[in-house]
Fold this protein.
Amino acid sequence: MKEQNRPCTGGEMAARMHIGWNLGNSLDCFAPGKGLEAETAWFNPPVTRRVLETVTEAGFDVLRIPVTWAGHFGKGPEYRLDEAWLCRVEEIISWGLELGAYVIVDLHHDGSAMNDPHAWLVPDGAHIEGVLPVFTALWTQLAARFGGYGEQLIFESMNEPHCGNDWVGNPERYAAVNRLNEAFVRIIRSSGEQNRTRKLLLPTYAASPKEAAINGLVLPEDPYLMASVHAYTPTEFCFPSREVNWAEPRIRWGSPADRTQLTEQLDRLENRFVRRGIPLLIGEFAAVCKPDDAQRLAWAEYYVREAARRGIRCLWWDTCTGKESMGLLDRHSCRWLYPELVQTLIRAAY
């Protein structure tokens, strides 16, 4: 007989999830020096409870709240987090939890993709000794702040940890990510309260779904962990045309070769993680709107349905700014811009 009221494992929690949504380009804005105004630095309005209500009412049961902490903490050795920023983050997390969602909070644009001295999280051998004290101080404070929250709150160690323009990595950089992930688990577990069994999400290098990166991820022995990758596949279909400089941007999807590409990627992820008892979230996926959005509907339905069939949960990256956007929700009016796509995502996941 199962022990009553025991904490669920990472795998059991992942099995309860269906489909997720990212609050992109809000608390994750990289805007050192702007204080609370950083939330609107990338042109979205301040987050309201109604935004999260609209998302959860549609059927999304996982909310990822990306947060950039760079520019919101003081000098070492304390690296004390700004109280006003912490309170704002906590307010939004609390709304999501009150709505019954699983809520994920991370360290987001703190890394070296940002060409700025405030971008401190560089996972390589040359920087790791300087990164660890900051990383440790921030997660120690976050663990203390949120340690009393229930198990629906999930901590994610970091977002897409990579070095500059290197999205592929190498063994040295994989080892640095593993070292940070190991320190993260140790910090959270030693902080007590609900954190002893809190579910923790650990990314590969750059959150890459490529074979070398997923094989390079080493997870500590802990039944409450989940792995994370991001997979905008195929990139020339998913990304805005202005960002596709290695191939011809695509507006169509659905050929046998297209389906094979996604199937092979999901099979690789299933074999590396799910079949080995490691729950996996695709923490970000999305595609920009198309002239004929039926193409995107077909892609999204196939992607989410096939992932769900393998026990993999997907979280849409929503930015809601500009043309050729991945945004689904108008955060001013709380109106879905592409309701048919939202319905497709929910139907494919459940």
